[in-house]
Design a protein that fits this description.
The protein has helices spanning 10-23, 62-76, 90-98, 117-120, 131-142, 149-158, 203-216, 232-240, and strands at residues 28-32, 35-39, 50-53, 81-84, 102-113, 162-170, 173-183, 186-194, 222-228, 244-253. It is of the alpha+beta class. The chain has 2 domains: 10-108 and 249-253, no CATH class; 115-220, Aminopeptidase (3-Layer(aba) Sandwich), CATH 3.40.630.30. The strands form 2 sheets. It has a 7-stranded mixed sheet with strand order 4-10-5-9-8-7-6, with helices on both faces. Strands 1-2-3 form a 3-stranded antiparallel sheet, covered by helices on one side. A hairpin with a 2-residue loop joins strand 6 and strand 7. The radius of gyration is 18 Å and the shape is globular. The protein starts with 9 loop residues before the first helix and ends with a strand.
Length: 257
């Protein structure tokens, strides 16, 4: 079951889910009741290609609605995927479980107070203005397939809140990259990655702190992020920076074959 940590009521979950939709926008968004169907032809990321239920009470006509969502995903050439946050609710979880849907991609939403010594003492860094340069850098640190360049550029270009594109480089060699999305009192971190040969050297910590300082100087008070639960290196980094778990989510997909 997706879970909530102490103090994370459904209203808080809704706040962060909505912030996530705005900060990492899908190319197409459809609604079926309170289900948000997000689809992106240019990028296969699960967050951008998933059904996101937003009310645990909205569980009527489940077989028919699942079928409708499946037709939309089929038109995009994507496997039908549900993203199960605490807003999905137990009845939908039981329905998918009963139909044999596979659970995968367990993830955590974490938050941190930005008024702390580590952020205050971070190195000032100006975000990149050249999106093409940033996309090249982040595709290198993530070892991303070159065919996804256009799709990633489209996603970043569609972000509506203020966005900071950060890269730590050695000459022309990108070491670490991150995206920081500032909206009101929130600063969301996305696409944080360090080149494989440069991991464990403190580059990620340095760049993340600089990105958070940039957002704090613009009025952000809380940082947040989404991270896969089976990524121990990232969890060590974020917990070391004061991030704590707010709630969890996972994905469901029909078994292949």
């Amino acid at each position: 079951m997706p879970g909530q940590r102490a103090g994370a009521g459904l209203s808080t979950v809704r706040q962060f889910e909505a912030a996530g939709f705005r900060a990492w926008p899908a190319a197409a968004v459809h609604y079926d009741g309170t289900w948000v169907v997000r689809l992106t032809a240019g990028h296969p990321a699960k967050r951008l290609n998933s059904v996101n239920p937003l009310d645990p009470r909205d569980v009527h006509d489940l077989p028919e609605r699942v079928m409708r969502a499946g037709r939309r995903f089929e038109a995009y050439g994507r496997p039908l995927t549900f993203r199960m946050s605490p807003l999905a609710g137990a009845p939908l979880e039981r329905h998918l479980e009963g139909e044999g849907w596979i659970r995968f991609g367990d993830s955590l939403v974490m938050q941190a107070d930005l008024d702390n010594a580590a952020v205050n003492g971070a190195m000032d860094q100006i975000p990149l203005k050249d999106m093409g340069r940033f996309v090249t850098a982040t595709m290198t640190t993530h070892a991303t397939d070159a065919t996804l360049r256009a799709g990633l550029s489209e996603i970043i270009g569609a972000i509506q809140p203020e966005v900071g594109l950060f890269a730590l480089e050695r000459g022309d060699e990108p070491l670490t990259t991150a995206i920081c999305v500032h909206e009101g009192d929130l600063a969301g971190l996305f696409e944080v990655a360090t080149a494989e040969a440069e991991r464990g050297k403190g580059h990620g910590r340095r760049l993340v702190l600089s990105a958070l300082k940039w957002a704090r100087l613009r009025g952000a008070r809380r940082a947040w992020l989404q991270v896969e639960a089976d990524n121990p290196a990232a969890l060590r980094l974020y917990r070391g920076l004061g991030f704590t778990e707010l709630y969890s989510y996972h994905y469901r997909r029909r078994p292949e074959g």
